[in-house]
């Protein structure tokens, strides 16, 4: 594996406190290599989203260890987590686009949270990604005039435009047809190859599995399988 950008050790997670407390993750251990595409699978309620949000600094890590980009998240303060989140891209099912902004402007929002910059350069970066995702003709459309799949692709472009170190995606292709779903995941892979961008993705989409470097399956809050995906380009074992 390339050097890990995420290392999870003995991670437990509980929702609620006292008698109402419910354990959602049990002793999860995982290392994710730079530039790889890791898929998290498993039945509903198995803990995929919980794990993704813990690794993505969207929840506090209370037990065990998560090293993210060389920083420990267990006990990390909000300032560090905010700082780290700036280096991450998120694609979630509820795409949270701004209804009053065009596709281009929504994607540019992904850059504006990083501070001021040259608006013309931001627009060019947004247009480039929207073009790669097949929305070059829809730059000036408002979300209300886009289909569910087109909105999802705008959300993907917004997550990618800041050139994040790691992309966390929860069912990013659920609303997409086969061609645009594959194109989106190919783009994640391409970014992995050319820029070392790492992707961790929850999906039930069997069409995507062929593109995975790694497939991790959760059940009842535990990793029950962790194996190389078909696209893994390293040899499975060192030759002897
Ligand atoms: N905010 C919460 N409060 C209490 N329990 C929660 C909360 N979020 C998740 N859970 C519970 O934690 C467990 C894991 O949920 P999680 O959403 O991580 O599963 P999942 O594998 O992502 O499921 P799905 O595929 O349906 O999204 C479930 O039993 C769920 O009910």
From TrEMBL:
<keyword id="KW-0813">Transport</keyword>
<keyword id="KW-0547">Nucleotide-binding</keyword>
<dbReference type="GO" id="GO:0022857">
    <property type="term" value="F:transmembrane transporter activity"/>
</dbReference>
<dbReference type="InterPro" id="IPR014324">
    <property type="entry name" value="ABC_heterocyst_DevA"/>
</dbReference>
<dbReference type="GO" id="GO:0016887">
    <property type="term" value="F:ATP hydrolysis activity"/>
</dbReference>
<dbReference type="InterPro" id="IPR017911">
    <property type="entry name" value="MacB-like_ATP-bd"/>
</dbReference>
<dbReference type="InterPro" id="IPR003593">
    <property type="entry name" value="AAA+_ATPase"/>
</dbReference>
<dbReference type="GO" id="GO:0005524">
    <property type="term" value="F:ATP binding"/>
</dbReference>
<keyword id="KW-0067">ATP-binding</keyword>
<protein>
    <submittedName>
        <fullName>ATP-binding cassette domain-containing protein</fullName>
    </submittedName>
</protein>
<dbReference type="InterPro" id="IPR017871">
    <property type="entry name" value="ABC_transporter-like_CS"/>
</dbReference>
<dbReference type="InterPro" id="IPR027417">
    <property type="entry name" value="P-loop_NTPase"/>
</dbReference>
<feature type="domain" description="ABC transporter">
    <location>
        <begin position="8"/>
        <end position="240"/>
    </location>
</feature>
<dbReference type="InterPro" id="IPR003439">
    <property type="entry name" value="ABC_transporter-like_ATP-bd"/>
</dbReference>
<dbReference type="Pfam" id="PF00005">
    <property type="entry name" value="ABC_tran"/>
</dbReference>
<dbReference type="InterPro" id="IPR015854">
    <property type="entry name" value="ABC_transpr_LolD-like"/>
</dbReference>
<dbReference type="GO" id="GO:0005886">
    <property type="term" value="C:plasma membrane"/>
</dbReference>
């Amino acid at each position: 594996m390339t050097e890990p950008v995420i290392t999870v050790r003995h991670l437990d997670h509980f929702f609620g406190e006292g008698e109402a407390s419910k354990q959602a993750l049990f002793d999860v251990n995982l290392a994710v290599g730079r530039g790889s595409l890791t898929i998290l699978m498993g039945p509903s309620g198995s803990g995929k989203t919980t794990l993704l949000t813990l690794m993505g600094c969207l929840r506090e890590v209370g037990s065990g260890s998560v090293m993210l980009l060389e920083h420990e998240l267990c006990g990390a303060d909000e300032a560090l987590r905010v700082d780290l989140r700036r280096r991450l891209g998120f694609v979630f099912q509820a795409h949270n686009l701004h209804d009053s902004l065009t596709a281009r402007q929504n994607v540019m929002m992904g850059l504006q949270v990083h501070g001021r910059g040259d608006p013309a350069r931001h627009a060019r970066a947004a247009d480039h990604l929207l073009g790669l995702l097949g929305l070059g003709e829809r730059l000036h459309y408002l979300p209300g005039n886009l289909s569910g799949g087109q909105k999802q692709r705008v959300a993907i472009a917004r997550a990618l435009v800041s050139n994040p170190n790691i992309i966390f995606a929860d069912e990013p292709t659920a609303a997409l047809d086969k061609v645009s779903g594959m194109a989106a995941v190919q783009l994640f892979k391409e970014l992995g190859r050319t820029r070392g961008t790492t992707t961790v993705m929850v999906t039930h989409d069997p069409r995507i599995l062929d593109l995975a470097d790694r497939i991790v399956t959760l059940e009842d809050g535990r990793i029950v399988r962790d194996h190389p995906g078909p696209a893994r380009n390293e040899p499975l074992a060192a030759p002897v």
